[in-house]
Amino acid sequence: MNTEATTAPAANPLLVIVESLKNAFLDMGQALADFLPKLVIALIILCIGLILAKIIKAVMTKVLAGIKIDTLVEKSGLLPTLSKMGIKGSLAVSIPKLLGYLIIFFMVKSAAESASFTNVSEFLGSILGLLPKVIMAFLIMVAGMFVGDVIQTATFNSLDQRGLDYAKTLSRIVFGFIFLVFLTVALSQVGIETELLKDSVKILLIGVSMAIAIALGLGLKDHAHNIVAAIYVRDVYNHGTSVEIDGEYLTVRGTGPVTSKLQKENGDFIIIPNSELVSTKIKGRASS
After folding, report:
1. Domain with CATH 2.30.30.60 in the chain
2. Over the chain, what HEC string results?
3. pTM tops 0.85, yes or no
4. What CATH number has the domain spanning 226-285?
5. Which numeric CATH code is attached to 134-219?
């Protein structure tokens, strides 16, 4: 019995290639046709953003110049603080310029989203989401610098009026401590882990406190007594006050952190520990 095998005609390789190219071009054309409207919308959004940024920048510049924001900042005492933070020049120009950049940045995100650039849009969105926290952290640091400067100046003036030689050093230490406190708060605002910084500050403060306590309790016990006594000596014995010590009248010419300088009637000077002027019964006469 004879059987006939039927086979399908072999496909022409050239026709297969042509068909594949045609399908590829059709797909590319369809993708381009779908993308072009999105691209046009994205470009329109960018143009609107640029125009809007210029308008708002011009309006804000006039408003801030009208209220004389630079004069207000200077009178408030914030100008030195802003200079330390790297902000120099007119705020009436800087703030509108920054606001204009922010508007353009937001419009770029919207344009990327319209053009289906998902990765770009998500990246810009994450930055915009972080921006309020960064601004808040910056404001906290400005406040910290301002408060630190005020307290540093007050501490220095108070200690300097008492004639303490270490007034500048102590005032800087106070400023550094305040700065670290505000820095910790600012970093926590942007989601940066601050536990290590907090622990380091605690260890540093404990170490410094222990070192001072040991030093004052052992080797510097007498000096510590004289340093504390200097505060009372300056309150009781003004410059030029006459005191009687061992039957001789001496004139107070100066009080240092540890000792006081007394002048005899013949013009000679003697130096005595401050603690003696506090713990010893002394007669005195007010300066004329």
Report:
1. 226-285
2. CCCCCCCCCCCCHHHHHHHHHHHHHHHHHHHHHHHHHHHHHHHHHHHHHHHHHHHHHHHHHHHHHHCCHHHHHHHHCCHHHHHHCCCCCCHHHHHHHHHHHHHHHHHHHHHHHHCCCHHHHHHHHHHHHHHHHHHHHHHHHHHHHHHHHHHHHHHHHHHHHCCCCCHHHHHHHHHHHHHHHHHHHHHHHCCCCCHHHHHHHHHHHHHHHHHHHHHHHCCCHHHHHHHHHHHHHHHHCCCCCEEEECCEEEEEEEECCCEEEEECCCCCEEEEEHHHHHHCCCEEECCC
3. no
4. 2.30.30.60
5. 1.10.287
Res 178 pLDDT > 80: yes
Lowest model confidence (mean pLDDT) among 50-54, 56-60, 202-206: 202-206
Residue 169's pLDDT is what?
81
